[in-house]
Each structure stands twice: as C-alpha cells, then as structure tokens.
Specification:
This protein has about 325 residues and is of the alpha/beta class. Helix content is about 45%, strand content about 15%. It folds into 2 domains: about 5-170 and about 215-240, NAD(P)-binding Rossmann-like Domain (Rossmann fold, 3-Layer(aba) Sandwich); about 175-215 and about 245-315, UDP-galactose 4-epimerase, domain 1, CATH 3.90.25. The chain has a 7-stranded parallel beta sheet with strand order 3-2-1-4-5-6-10, sandwiched between helices. Helix 1 (about 15-25) links the parallel strand 1 (about 5-10) and strand 2. The longest helix has 20 residues, at about 85-105. Bound molecules: serine.
C-alpha cells in the first residue's frame, strides 16, 4: 500500500537527500517536502514543497490534512554546536516539533513517525568504546539533552498511546550534497571540501579524537529500512544505536592524502569538549538483530565518493 509522506526539514543535510531518494524510488505515494526556508532546486522542483514552521501545530496540521499525509519524517533540528550558542531556541525547536508530530500520531491523524536521535545522547560517563545500546546516558550538550529527552518521550508515546514511532541514533554523517551547519562532526565534510579546493584546513577537533561516522547513503538506507521494518520486529522504541565506522580528523586526512595533498592544522574550539564526551565507536548489534542493519561504506569508499562528489559539484558551479 502506498503512503503519503511528509519530510520536515527537507532543506537540511539529511532531509534533502532523503527526499530525493524517496522520490526516486516511486514505491511510495506523494513525497511532500517542507522546511522553514527554501530548499535546493532539486527538492523544490521534484515534487510538492511547502514552507512550513513545524513548531506551529496549525500550519503542520493544515499540510497533513491537505495532502492526506500518513507518515512524517521529522528531520528539522538545531545541531550540537549551534545549540550551545542558542540553548533555549534549540530546546524549543527540537522539542516542540517532536511533540507536535507525536501528538498528531496519538490522535491518529498520521500513522507512522521517523524521528532522528544521535550519538549526542551519550555523555562523559558512558563507556566510549563499542558503546552498548543500553548504558549510562548523561549528555552534557544542549543538543544531547534534547535528543535524550526526545527518546524518552518517543518510547513513552509508543507504550502509552501505541504510537508507531521509529528512531536511529545517527553517528556523524558525511555527505557533499547539502552542508550540515553547526554540528560537531562537520569537520569531516570540511576536510574533504578544503582538500578539493586545495585550501589548508584548520580542524576545530583534535587530530586523534575518534567518533562514530557514516556515509550519508548508508544513513538514508538505514532510515528507509527501519521505516519499512515489520513493527513487531522492533524491540527498541527509544532509538537504535547505529555504528558506522570510527574516524578522527587525522584518519580522514590520511585517507585523503593517499589521493592528493592536504594541509591540516589543529586548533580545538568549544566543540572539542562535546566530541570528547561522545563515544568513539558504537555497538549496533540490536539494529542488526531486529531489522538486519549493516553499513556498507568503509573509509576508502567514503573518501573516493566525497572527493569525486565535491569535484563534480565545483565544476558544475
Ligand atoms: N552530527 C551531529 C552534530 O555534530 C550529531 O548528531 O551535531
């Protein structure tokens, strides 16, 4: 059966690629893109697009009603770095949008929700290596606090109101199509972009700080897979660990240098404290057990795809 899907945050790093991928598949009904601001031409012209402030329940309900939406992917959020500058704005945006969507599902106005969580839910007392699904969670960033709170509410809405909400704790996501903006893991993307532009890069994260990272194609695959999984298979209704690979600025720079030159300097800023409180690697065996998740892209594959992607993009500009 076809579902009509609404993507909130379709101008953003994940939302834009998710939108294009779902539209290309044609396995679904209408894919409605929305964001508080305009998106890339591809997103705006490839199907319906609505300017939508999802913190406003009336605007959101109007779009859901107008298009007969069945499923929502809520990809709008303020990332970890920016959230430290605007704590209350981040909290309000990240929580109000989630409650609006969960309440629509509770009232049966939609029947399925995807909401992204993050490795930011972990904190300084969490075991850093191969972090388990269930462990100490004491996030110290504003972003992490909002994500952990969101996870608790997702699980609560599932158990209490039978809301079909599904979630993944994304690692840092690497992509060249749409820039993330304000995240602690943005250095990974900036390294590739500077390399292709032949510019020296100053990393705001130290050379040997390892973090779980993943290529965007894998993340989109995981998102679509969990949304299509049999609901009875999903034993986790807070959010699933998703591992990917463990990378540092130094390891990414080394992989780039196997292809071309790159000058990197290191000058840690406030985001180093956030990165140091996050895991270096993640145990995602629950995702494997429950919905057969396995990532595909290794560092070498990511480097090849990123260098080529940025080169083509620069040529086209
Ligand atoms: N990539 C995100 C960030 O750095 C983490 O979810 O904020």
């Amino acid at each position: 059966m076809y579902s009509n899907i609404l993507i909130i945050g379709a101008s953003g790093q994940i939302g834009s690629e998710l939108c294009q991928r779902l539209r290309a598949e044609k396995d679904e009904g209408e894919i409605v893109a929305s964001d508080i601001r305009e998106a890339d031409d591809e997103v705006m012209q490839g199907g319906p697009f609505e300017i939508l402030d999802a913190t406003d329940i009336d605007q959101l309900e109007e779009v859901v009603y107008h298009y007969g939406i069945d499923e929502i992917y809520l990809m709008a959020a303020m990332l970890s770095g920016t959230a430290e500058t605007f704590p209350m704005r981040a909290w309000n945006l990240n929580m109000d949008t989630l409650f609006n969507v969960l309440n629509l599902a509770r009232e049966k106005k939609i029947n399925k929700v995807f909401w992204p969580s993050s490795i930011a839910v972990f904190g300084p007392n969490t075991p850093r290596k191969n972090t388990p699904q269930h462990t100490i969670m004491d996030p110290s960033s504003v972003y992490g606090i909002s994500k952990l709170t969101g996870e608790r509410w997702c699980e609560y809405y599932h158990h209490r109101y039978n809301v079909d909400v599904r979630s993944i704790r994304y690692p840092g996501l690497i992509s060249y199509k749409t820039a993330p903006g304000g995240g602690t893991t943005d250095f990974s993307i900036e390294l590739y972009e500077h390399a292709v532009k032949r510019k020296p890069y100053t990393s705001f994260i130290e050379k040997d700080t390892f973090l779980p990272m993943m290529y965007m194609n894998d993340a989109i695959e995981a998102t679509i897979n969990i949304m299509r999984a049999d609901p009875d298979q999903l034993s986790v209704r807070s959010s699933y660990n998703l591992g990917g690979i463990s990378l540092s600025p130094g390891s990414i720079a080394g992989s780039i240098r196997a292809h071309q030159g790159l000058e990197v300097n290191y000058k840690a800023d406030f985001r180093q404290k956030i990165a140091s409180s996050w895991p270096s690697s993640i145990d995602d065996s629950m995702a494997y057990q429950d919905w057969n998740w396995q990532h595909r892209y290794q560092l070498e594959d990511i480097t090849e795809a990123m260098l080529k992607g940025f080169k083509d993009k620069i040529k086209a500009d």
